[in-house]
Design a protein that fits this description.
Blueprint (H helix, E strand, L loop, with lengths): L13 E5 L3 H10 L4 E6 L3 E3 L4 H6 L4 H4 E3 H4 L4 E4 L2 E4 L3 E4 L4 E3 L2 E4 L11 H17 L2 E5 L3 H13 L4 E6 L10 H13 L3 E4 L14 E3 L5 E3 L2 E4 L39 E3 L12 H19 L17 E5 L3 E5 L4 E4 H7 L5 H7 L10
Parallel strand pairs: 1-2, 1-9, 2-5, 9-16, 10-11, 10-15, 11-12
Antiparallel strand pairs: 3-4, 6-7, 7-8, 13-14, 17-18, 18-19
Helix pairs in contact: 1-8
């Protein structure tokens, strides 16, 4: 990992990418032969997030979706650690690493807790699979796309399980159109998933041994296994004590301009779910942001004029929510449909092969 091509006359700029998720990994991969790139991530691997729910019901699926950073970052430096602070010239990790930069990219996404090593993450998936397999009843709290897709994965692979989905909203997946949400609801009901809308569960007063859960309406639910699929806030708290503290909006998102630079700064970019761009937070858009930001960074490092930098425009894109291994519900700009056709687009492989190809890896072969 420390070997790299000779710097071009000693003029290579130092780029530090904080966060190795969907956007950060692609950013580092794209820039590694144009700059002195350092990727800082708490994990030694990149996890394709839209594959994680399938991995709970089929642990072997994670073999292709958990990718060592070193496998695509062949000409960059990887530091496995947690960034705790930044200055206008350096990044500091909790392990004591101080990394100087000319350009900084913030790509920390949403909050979450993941093990440091790939093998530990694979073990987590195997454990969750065993818990699902041995459970007679499963409760899922949260009816966004994560809760819906998880309920569908379990209902498809384990049709004998009693699956209950509790959601506080008046309908599932408020980010999608009502027609698509209703189609997803009908699919879940057809698979015997009990969906309880306009109800919530107090998650703060649960014990480790809880097997019975009470909803806000007083209804009691018996479940052997609980999955909480409610939204997670942006991973930006660590920025609040840094020089970027005024660049965070009230929702915790980092404010960026049309070129994906943090507003007010010429050498600091932010990409992915942590930005304040008004669009659905999904992997495809995070990748598009990374490619635009990488193009702009290359232009700046080459001395190009700022006025010619690429502009990122938020736009409505296709939304596909997988429903098990075969079906999906899709919402495009002018049409919505459900079944095998949208399922062929996403549900079989969950875009794992495409994501691996973008990182320059064989789409079919698992990493070891």
């Amino acid at each position: 990992m420390e070997e790299r091509q000779p710097e071009l006359g000693g003029l290579w700029k130092r780029v530090v990418v904080v966060g190795g998720g969907v956007a950060g990994s692609l950013m580092a991969k794209t820039l590694q032969f144009n700059a002195d790139v350092t990727l800082v991530d708490p994990k030694e691997y990149f996890e394709i997030p839209y594959a994680s729910l399938r991995s709970k019901v089929e642990p072997a699926f994670a073999e292709r979706s958990l990718i060592y950073h070193k496998d695509y970052l062949t000409n960059g430096r990887l530091i496995v650690g947690k960034v705790i602070s930044i200055s206008n010239s350096q990044v500091l990790t909790s392990e004591g690493h101080q990394i100087s930069y000319d350009y900084l990219v913030v790509a920390t996404g949403h909050t979450g807790s993941f093990p440091r090593t790939r093998s530990e993450r694979l073990t987590e998936f195997r454990t969750e699979h065993e818990e699902i397999r041995s459970a007679d009843s499963i409760l899922i709290v949260g009816g966004g796309h994560v809760g819906v897709e998880l309920a569908a994965e379990i209902a498809f692979d384990f049709p004998q399980k009693k699956v209950t989905l509790v959601h506080e909203g008046s309908r599932l997946m408020e980010f999608i159109g009502a027609k698509a949400a209703d189609k997803a609801l009908q699919w879940l009901k057809s698979r015997r998933v009990e969906v309880m809308l306009r109800q919530s569960i107090d998650l703060h007063n649960l014990s480790e041994e809880s097997k019975t859960f009470e909803t806000s309406s007083g209804e009691r639910i018996r479940a052997d296994r609980l999955f909480v699929c409610t939204g997670k806030p942006p991973a930006s708290d660590w920025l609040r004590e840094t020089f970027l503290k005024d660049s965070i909006d009230r929702f915790g998102n980092v404010k960026v301009d049309e070129n994906l630079r943090v507003k007010g700064y010429k050498n600091v970019f932010a990409v992915g779910d942590i930005t304040d761009i008004k669009e659905i937070k999904q992997g495809y858009f995070a990748q598009q942001q990374a490619l635009v930001a990488a193009k702009n960074l290359k232009a700046l490092m080459d001395g190009g004029p700022e006025k010619k930098m690429a502009i990122y425009k938020a736009r409505p894109g296709k939304i596909i929510v997988s429903l098990g291994r075969q079906d999906a519900v899709a919402q495009f700009q002018y049409t919505t449909w459900i079944g095998l056709v949208p399922g062929m687009i996403k549900s079989k492989d969950l875009f794992v092969g495409k994501t691996r190809k973008k990182l320059g890896l064989d789409p079919r072969i698992a990493d070891h």
